[in-house]
Design brief:
Elements: H1 3-12, H2 16-49, H3 52-59, H4 63-70, H5 73-94, H6 100-112, H7 126-134, H8 138-154, H9 162-181, H10 190-202
Helix pairs in contact: 2-5, 3-4, 5-8, 6-8, 6-10, 8-9, 9-10
Length: about 200
């Protein structure tokens, strides 16, 4: 039995007063299940090769059902990015300690993890970086808040705009990833190189 069939059976057997509430909850659960499946697919093939029709076959549902939940492939991809960033932020919070330099190191290690291994990755699409730049979501703000918090502790100078430094730190690490993909930067000591360049510049 398909997942859509299960949802339809449940809806047919509830009272009319609760139907809308239950329908909204089922849509939320369905959307979460479909997003998790889409995330695995994006991880495997990347944005360019991702096809809604292939995802629909895997989920045993229709293309229209997926479009009803996410509107478009682009919007589904944005939701995928949000999910990945939420996992990233959760790892940062779980491992945040009292040493701000070590916390920045952990940030970079998690951020670079997929790119500095020998395993194949599809997240080097320029589209990936583009979407990270324009994504308007609270998880992005929380990641910047995390960086700002570390930089305030690490560089407690007067008249320093730590929010600005947080943006520069993210941009620098983004640049290291792009440089790595272009063959200009090896993965060897990439975390230490990022920290050295940033901290030497920030202290000027």
């Amino acid at each position: 039995m398909k997942i859509d069939d299960i949802f339809d059976i449940i809806l047919k057997n509830i009272g009319k007063d609760l139907k809308q509430v239950i329908n909204e909850e089922l849509s939320r659960v369905k959307k979460e299940l479909y997003l998790n499946a889409a995330a695995r697919y994006f991880d495997e093939v990347g944005y360019k090769e991702f096809k809604i029709s292939d995802l629909a076959k895997e989920l045993e549902t229709s293309v229209g059902t997926i479009y009803n939940l996410f509107d478009s492939k682009e919007k589904l991809y944005v939701q995928y990015l949000v999910l990945k960033l939420e996992i990233f932020l959760g790892n940062l919070k779980e491992n945040e300690g009292s040493d701000p330099l070590e916390n920045l190191r952990v940030y970079l290690e998690y951020k670079y993890a997929k790119y500095i291994t020998n395993e194949p990755t599809t997240t080097n699409d320029s589209y990936f970086f583009h979407k990270l730049e324009i994504l308007n979501h609270k998880v992005v703000d929380e990641i910047y808040q995390y960086l700002t918090r570390q930089l305030r502790l690490l560089l407690p100078y007067e008249n320093t705009n730590h929010e600005h430094l947080a943006i520069l730190f993210k941009k620098l690490s983004d640049g290291f990833i792009v440089s790595h993909f272009s063959g200009q930067c090896s993965s060897e000591q990439i975390v230490d190189k990022t920290l050295d360049i940033f901290l030497n510049g920030a202290k000027q």
